[in-house]
Each structure stands twice: as structure tokens, then as C-alpha cells.
From TrEMBL:
Entry-linked InterPro entries: Chromo-like_dom_sf, Chromo_domain
Domain Chromo: from-to ranges: 63-109
Organism: Solanum verrucosum
Name of protein: Chromo domain-containing protein
Annotated Pfam families: Chromo (PF00385)
Length: 116
């Protein structure tokens, strides 16, 4: 079980981490790095649907291909797809290499690109 504690010294927020899995996280944050959360009930996700692992991580699962583009480099063209991820808003969709996505998630490219 992770025994985390927060302490605030002036304008510095410090997280004391006892869990070795979180040791790579920098434990000190300047207050200027923090953002005020102004949200409503629509932004709250039930943790049961996210399936958080014991290591406090979860797997992002792509749900749908939203768009496709071809980037022209000097010697080749690279196809990219805009991916909507589960438990994320459309605004948080990311551009990924189409070739990698086809290898990892072939079901997205079969009949319309919907996972559900």
C-alpha cells in the first residue's frame, strides 16, 4: 500500500513517496505548475469504469478513428490517424502513426473504425 503525504512549504508542493513504483515521479512541484480545476459533475468519471491497476495506472484503449492525414516529409509520406481514447473527451484525441495503430489495434480499421 502506498503511503503518500503532501506538504506545502511557501510556494512549493512536495509529495513524499514511499512506493518504489512512483519513485520516478519528481516529488517537488512549484505552485506555478498547478492549475485551478473549474469543473462540474460531468467531468467526474467513476473509477470502476476506468479499471485502475494496483500500480495506480490504467490502460488507454482507443475507441474510434476520428480523422486521417498524410504528413509529407522530404523523402517519404507518413499516414497519421486522430484517435479518440476511452474515458477522454474529443478535445483530448491524439494524432498517432497509422501503421502503429493498425498493428496494435486492427479492429479500429475494420468496418468503420468503432471499438464499441
Amino acid at each position: 500500500m502506498c503511503n503518500n503525504r503532501w506538504s506545502i512549504d511557501c510556494d512549493i508542493l512536495r509529495l513524499e513517496v514511499d512506493d518504489w513504483e512512483l519513485a520516478a515521479v519528481h516529488p517537488v512541484f512549484h505552485i506555478s505548475m498547478l492549475k485551478k480545476c473549474i469543473g462540474g459533475p460531468s467531468l467526474i468519471l467513476p473509477t470502476e469504469s476506468i479499471r485502475i491497476k494496483d500500480s495506480l495506472s490504467y490502460e488507454e484503449i482507443p475507441v474510434q478513428i476520428l480523422d486521417r492525414q498524410i504528413l509529407k516529409l522530404r523523402t517519404k509520406e507518413v499516414a497519421s490517424v486522430k484517435v479518440l481514447w476511452r474515458n477522454q473527451l474529443v478535445e483530448k484525441a491524439t494524432w498517432e502513426a497509422e501503421e502503429d495503430m493498425k498493428k496494435r489495434y486492427p479492429y479500429l480499421f475494420e468496418s468503420g473504425g468503432n471499438a464499441d
